Amino acid sequence: MSAEPTTPELDLSWLDLYDDPTSAEPTKKGLTLDAIDIGDYASQEDLPRDMTPRLRGASARENAHRQGLTYQTKHDVWADQCRSLYEEAVQRQWSSARDIPWDTLKELPDEKERAICQVATMLAEVEFIAGDVPGQWLPHISGDEFEVGLFLMSQIMDEARHTDVFRKRALANGGGLLQQGAGLGLRNLIEAQDFTEMSVLMHVQAEGFVQSMFRMGELIGPTQADKRIFRMAAQDESRHLAFGVMHLKHVLAETPERREEIHHYLDKAEDRSAGGGSGDVTFPPVFESLCILLGGGKDRFDEGVAKFLLLRRRQVKEYLHRLDVAGLGDRRERLGSALAQYAN
Amino acid sequence: MAEGEPTEGPITAEMRAAAQALGWEEDLLDRAIDWGYSPRTVVSALGTKLAPAQAKSFLDREPLKPDLTWMDAPTEWGVRAEQADADMGLTVGDIMVGSYGEIPDLWTDRTEIARGSNPQVGQEDMGYTIFEKAVVWTDSVADLYERAIRDRWAPATDLGWRSLEALPDEVEKAICQVMTEHSERAYAEAAVLGRWLPEISYGFVEMKLFMSSVIYDLARHAEAFRKRALSNGGGLGLQAPTDLIRGATEARTYPELMAYLFVQDSAFLTFFRHAGDLAQNQLERDLYALVASDRERLMEYQVERFEAFLLAMPDRREEQQRYLAKAEVRLAREWNDPAVREPLILLLGGSRENVAAGEAALTALRRRQVEEYLGHLDQAGFIRSRLHSGLAVYLEEPETAPA
Predict the structure, then answer these.
(1) Residues 6 or more apart whose Cβ sits within 8 Å of residue B111
(2) Domain ranges of chain B
(3) Which residue range forms the structural domain that includes residue A257?
(4) Which residues of B touch A53 (CB under 8 A)?
(5) Which CATH class is domain B133-400?
(6) Are B56 and B45 in contact, with CB atoms under 8 Å apart?
(7) What is the ipTM of this complex?
(8) A112 near B95, Cβ under 8 Å?
(9) What is the per-residue pLDDT across A282-323, written as a single tens digit (0 to 9) for each?
(10) Is the entire prediction scored with pTM above 0.90?
């Protein structure tokens, strides 16, 4: 008896599937997702959505399993520019180990070291959740919108790096981790039952608040390493935020009847926490540590408070601006009370 | 100093005008100064354009006295992590020092608390389900994560897309079919792994960092394979068979998921290691090599996690046979799928005229995949009791032709 595995005759019917010979051309940014979004393989509005693992453009197998429920319309998950945001994420990956000038850390007054470690503790929590949330939505995105999935996968990597860099900061300069954050608002993100609900709460609101804070990193960070951490993290957050704003804009343009529903998500989130899913910056350990860093020490706490108020104003102002860009400019009139006091 | 700019002394006329314009109470600035706010702080408050009620709330009371009890949180203090290897920088492994490097066998906190920080009473349960170290952990995760970041590459720019030249029609289509299959497989595995991230508690943060890097690796693999299919006159072919990935989706626990994926992760690693044999150009050789390099890290995790799991939970050893068997039977079936098998025969044989040579080369590749799979299990300290016949057949000695 031959021990060779049986070798069926060649079928070769798979050779007959190519109706649209495709030669995508590299651009000056290389061969990008935009460059291969061509011909039969391009994203289309009216494709029937596939619940099997098939990615857009491949020929379907008649016996393919469904993998579970996926969104059936493009606008449920799509964001214009998600392809370029993904490509940017791939090009701008950075290393918390080697791209932060850890050698610029210097011994700080104890109160300042404790303050930056408290902020880092809070952020190491917030960024941890921000990695979990996109993960749970991946199976619900049809392969017809695989670019959205790729973007979320890049976000998972970004959030891992943020979790790691803030933990490193807390443990790199004679400090340690301190008090757990308030947790308020973080569950909002993981509780979301709809992709748009998740995106508006996480990408637009939570990451928006975090972004506004990171962009004040020049004031918050006591060392060059700290300032660099905030700058690098802000660069990543900008992409996540852009995805959220573009997704919301797409949803509102395609399904304007969802406007009140989206307001309702924001109503709930704004009522629940002053920081949305960004971690509650008014939680005393976080508020006080930020004020110490912004003011320059605990004996200049009141100056820190004044700058903290500026930060809050900036957070709310930028939040409203982003919603306005997305087409939800009327949010200003119904902003939750915890935020409204900073809106004028 | 510019006229009217307050730093010390009385409140300036400009400050009073600004307060009036904002509708603040007339004597609010005086009360704020009397109570100890510095003029600079008052100017800052004016700059924020606080509403009257808000300004009163902020300024019309004793200056805030911070509580600062958080500074005395009973956590380990005075940690100064040192870089063990200057070339690698400050790694996650470097900060696993003192109590911060202790990974508990059983993590008990159900919140999102960063391991090592001081718990806040009354926090909500975040819904994690994985609290046992033995289920997810291996000591190499921190190192694997940093290596993933160090070795990152970009499909758009790190492959020589402009070097591609036209290939015979059937060869190009065979390549495109392989790319279609593996683009889909990579994406689907990433999606499955992503779904498990919210299950894993903060006690094992370093493992989650590594798993995040795996998901990102798989995303780039899906991207790169798709780009190759669409860049040289071909296109996408028939979607991959769905049995194998469906089994991963069906996993009820993380150990089941990992045992099941062990089979395909091992088989695909071997495939990509040797895929240079089917590459038609330098771009494909580079692509396969980069993918194999990423998959090495995943397999290293798989082997070490499995070994640690089996040592910690010997009573679950026999159960793993079932998960492996389930994956093996599906893998063997998919290896015989025409759209999986035939493109490889054409590429390994060189053309339709060399089918016999292509089949022989594919059989050799499959044998290598099975051998290395058993080798990976052996490294994990696991003896596969009943290798599925669809894989075992590749290990049998071929009948020697009579002289």
Answers:
(1) A180, A183, B119, B120, B123, B124, B125, B126
(2) 1-71, 133-400
(3) 109-340
(4) 184, 187-188, 239-240, 242, 245
(5) mainly alpha
(6) no
(7) 0.96
(8) no
(9) 788 999 999 999 999 999 998 999 899 999 999 999 999 999
(10) yes
